[in-house]
Amino acid sequence: MIRFEHVSKRYDGGQDALTDLSFELPEGDFAFLTGHSGAGKSTLLKLVMLMERPTRGQVIVNHQNLTQMRSGQIPYLRRHIGVVFQNHQLLFDRTVYDNVALPLIISGFQPRDVGRRVRAALDKVGLLDKEKKNPIALSGGEQQRVGIARAVVNKPPLLLADEPTGNLDPELSEEIMGLFQQFNDVGVTVLIASHDIALITRLQRRVFGLAKGRLVHDGVLRRQAHMA
Ligand code: ADP
Ligand code: ADP
Predict the structure, then answer these.
(1) Which ipTM score applies to this complex?
(2) Whether the CB of 186 sits within 6 Å of ligand 2
(3) Which intervals hold domain ABC transporter (predicted)?
(4) Is residue 117 lining ligand 2, measured as CB closer than 6 Å?
């Protein structure tokens, strides 16, 4: 689903964010991406979404080589990728329903299909009863679940998350991870950037460890193990 071949990313200004990075995340997998602040996690996710382009190497997503992709094809790529952010990026001038509907409206779905899909997505995150509320009236955990519903409403085969539990307490963080696992159980490939080592270690999933833009770990973290 995602393959990096000798990928390096140097930002304008000379900052090396990723150096000679190679890894593969097969379809249907669930993995974490971890490392200290500045290790390159966000940059890696941005390369997958084509929000940035690599300086060297190849990025292949969903059988497409992004290096060769023209700008005009980017919206099509993004339609197949759901993204969850730490700060939800919800719009507070409209309802929960309208927030979740937005990606479908942008994709040109018929109103009839929008309603059905939005309710299916809200149902999956347990928020069907909140559709008419303004997200500002919801708790942090609920807001994050709205963000997840919005990310999956298009039924993307790939779900990316950047510190999705960054602002949540441990109990809510577990709950949010449980939701990602549910989507993975129905076949969605999941990649989550997180520096919450305690949480990641408990879940016993594949972990890519980054340090200063290099891959320093690939595999399940043993309990109480420490990252380099
Ligand atoms: P992480 O998500 O692990 O905190 P990032 O991918 O955000 O790491 O950052 C990796 C490195 O790239 C850092 O040194 C950061 O300062 C640098 N960086 C990130 N974005 C930019 C940018 N737009 N321009 C210049 N340097 C950047
Ligand atoms: P459709 O419009 O294809 O009939 P629905 O929204 O009614 O889709 O959901 C059909 C099924 O697809 C549901 O049982 C649901 O579990 C599954 N589904 C919904 N969203 C996703 C997703 N993001 N990834 C995988 N399966 C999903």
Answers:
(1) 0.72
(2) yes
(3) 2-227
(4) yes
